[in-house]
Amino acid sequence: MRDRLAAHHGPDRGAASLSVITTSGDRIQDKPLADFGGKGLFTKEIDEALLRGDIALAVHSMKDLPTQLPDGLCLAAVLPRADVRDAFLSPSAASLAALPAGAVVGTSSLRRGAQVKRARPDVRVVDFRGNVQTRMRKLAEGVADATLLAKAGLDRLGLADAATSVLSVDEMLPAVAQGAIGVVTRCDDDETRALLQPLNDSATETAVTCERAFLAELDGSCRTPIAGLAAVEGDTIRFRGLILSPDGAEWHEVEMTGPVAEAEAIGHRAGEDVRGRAGPAFLDKMT
Ligand SMILES: NCc1[nH]cc(CCC(=O)O)c1CC(=O)O
């Protein structure tokens, strides 16, 4: 991010210093995410630093951003999207399909767990928290036979080689906004917003706007396995959304295509559609 600012604005105007802020989501490692989750778990302390004026901009994985930002904070730029897919990691099996019956898959993501169970009802899913390195250590220690991690996260850490294989989006539809990085500022900070404007990637922004509208429509909480992915091709946006029961036994899928100008409306419509077909009982069960 700092390099991008300097590349666009030169070493003086584009100069930035880094402040690393640990959030509650990073700190609490001993509980399943779904049990203490809540909106903004990975952003609260950073939001506060922005609103106090300690920092001018915050760089987030958009996957971790709540659909509704706190009052006074605005998304100023979305960077070009990295790989959207999930990677499969296992010391013993080449792929999800190759896992032996009864194998144990570690993940703290309800979305991944539900899709693993959908493909492999015989597999046992166990909670697996911690940062990427911790999860890879647990895997090496044999706590689980396999785990899934965002390919974008592995790539950014220089750990691309740790992936045994990469799941197609048909096998494992990614989380809304997976692979996208968003930059948040105070809405009234015109100077920082102007600096960030040229860094925005409009195709990524359009795709995540559509995906986040789908999530917002379903009132997605950490307890609801939801996946969604939009792709922009010229003037057209194609969106696929999926909600599942945590055990993967029931799921509802939606696909919609339309003009990019309607990206947000398409996300909302897809959310309404899938909610209508799932019915209130399905969604109530999960909250
Ligand atoms: N929930 C944690 C999180 N938030 C963003 C990433 C990776 C980068 C991305 O998906 O954009 C990860 C790790 C993971 O899901 O494996």
Structure, explained:
This protein has helices spanning 2-13, 24-27, 33-36, 44-52, 110-119, 132-140, 151-156, 190-196, 202-217, 263-278, 280-285; strands spanning 58-61, 73-78, 86-89, 104-106, 124-126, 146-150, 165-166, 181-186, 226-233, 236-244, 251-259. The protein is α+β, with helices and mostly antiparallel strands. It folds into three domains: 1-80 and 179-200, 3-Layer(aba) Sandwich (D-Maltodextrin-Binding Protein, domain 2); 86-166, D-Maltodextrin-Binding Protein, domain 2, CATH 3.40.190.10; 201-287, Porphobilinogen deaminase, C-terminal domain (Double Stranded RNA Binding Domain). The strands form three sheets. It has a five-stranded mixed beta sheet, sandwiched between helices. Strands 1-8-2 form a three-stranded antiparallel beta sheet, with helices on both faces. α9 (202-217) runs parallel beside α10. The longest helix is centred in the C-terminal third of the chain and has 16 residues, at 202-217. The radius of gyration is 19 Å and the shape is globular. Bound molecules: the ligand NCc1[nH]cc(CCC(=O)O)c1CC(=O)O. The ligand NCc1[nH]cc(CCC(=O)O)c1CC(=O)O binds at residues 61, 63-64, 149-150, 152-153, 178-179. Tetrapolymerization of the monopyrrole PBG into the hydroxymethylbilane pre-uroporphyrinogen in several discrete steps.
